[in-house]
TrEMBL record:
Molecular-function GO term, any one: isomerase activity
Organism: Pseudochrobactrum saccharolyticum
Lineage: Bacteria, Pseudomonadati, Pseudomonadota, Alphaproteobacteria, Hyphomicrobiales
Keywords associated with the record: Isomerase
Signal peptide: none
Protein name according to UniProt: Sugar phosphate isomerase/epimerase
PANTHER family in the record: BLR5974 PROTEIN, HYDROXYPYRUVATE ISOMERASE
Xylose isomerase-like TIM barrel domain location: 84-306
SUPFAM superfamilies assigned: Xylose isomerase-like
This protein's record includes keyword Isomerase: yes
InterPro entries linked to this entry: IolE/XylAMocC-like (IPR050312), Xyl_isomerase-like_sf (IPR036237), Xyl_isomerase-like_TIM-brl (IPR013022)
Length: 312
């Protein structure tokens, strides 16, 4: 046991977290709550979040209190990347002052797939990825989330020879090759996120085919749960086991298995205990990023994860 903290005695709900393993609560002479907590609390994974620039001030105290990983999602749209994004990036840097966690961005994805067979479209995609790396360089970010090319349709045609596994892999290599070379020199990693993926091993094979430290995999729990509920995929924890130590990023969001909900953790039917038990078996230390439809649900998600002893 140890003295965990001295927190102001507050009757409101201003804090994100709730107290775990409180063994001997008391108040000191200044009205501060003295909490004695079990050592296991310090071993829980630290949870981060995906945020837009305008959401950062709302959560700044929270993401500065611990070394929380952040994912900035203000650069996914083409109109941002082709415009003057530096004033916004300067504001992000201002909001990051004092941040101790790891920093990444969500890369662009609207209007294209990374396995496009069209050489003209491929040129545009390569430009967008290069712009995303420009943002990383400016912000000091070292991870970019990109979307998997595997679809529900392609799942049953991977071995047909027509737009199958080999063609998807070849086209993805043609698209990503310049960005990966640059990312390797920058120390940036592209993490491929499951979208419609049914077989979690296909994305892993694709990432491994680059034989590069600049390519790894990501899991979106809600996407995996959707695939489990609708298209016959395994449960979410199986996606974790498939990725194993190649997993470097996780979008944490709850859902009902019917659609991509991005609900607060605990509001859907994802088996969170199984997911975190699976994560605990590997040592790749992925960034655990709350990705909420409503950023105000970050607070609600944290309360749930702390209450069930899964994160801090």
């Amino acid at each position: 046991m140890r003295l965990a903290a001295e927190l102001p005695h507050r009757s409101d709900d201003a804090y994100y977290g709730i107290v775990h393993c409180v063994l001997a609560p008391s108040f000191n002479e200044c009205g501060y709550l003295i909490i004695i907590e079990d050592e296991t609390m310090s071993e829980l994974p630290i949870i981060g979040a995906a945020l837009l620039v305008e959401e950062m001030p709302v959560h700044r105290d929270w993401y500065l209190e611990k070394p929380r990983d952040l994912e900035i999602q203000s650069f996914i749209n083409a109109d941002v990347l082709i415009g003057d994004w530096k004033p916004m990036a300067e504001e992000i840097k201002k909001q990051l002052d004092g941040h101790q966690g790891r920093l990444g961005i969500h890369g662009p994805f609207w209007g294209f797939t990374i396995d496009t067979p069209d050489p003209d479209v491929r040129t545009v995609v390569q430009k967008r990825l290069d712009q995303a790396l420009d943002v990383c360089e400016f912000l000091g970010a070292d991870q970019v989330v990109i979307h998997s090319p595997f679809t529900t349709w392609s799942h049953n045609h991977l071995d047909d020879g027509f737009n199958g596994r080999e063609e998807i892999t070849e086209n993805t290599h043609l698209t990503l090759a310049p960005a990966i070379r640059r990312a390797e020199n920058m120390g940036v990693t592209f993490v491929i996120e499951n979208i419609e993926d049914i077989n979690p091993f296909e994305r892993l094979k694709l990432a491994d085919s680059f034989n590069s430290s600049a390519v790894a995999v990501s899991i979106d729990t809600g996407h995996a749960h959707y695939a489990h509920g609708n298209t016959g995929a395994a449960p979410v924890d199986h996606f974790v086991h498939a990725a194993a130590n190649r997993l470097q990023h996780v979008h944490l969001q709850d859902a009902d298995g019917y659609a991509d909900r991005h609900w607060a953790t605990g509001d859907g039917t994802v088996n969170w205990k199984a997911v975190f038990a699976a994560l605990k078996q590997y040592d790749s230390n992925p960034r655990l990023i709350l990705e909420m439809r409503d950023h105000n649900d970050i607070k609600k998600s944290m309360k749930y994860l702390e209450a069930v002893g899964l994160g801090q």
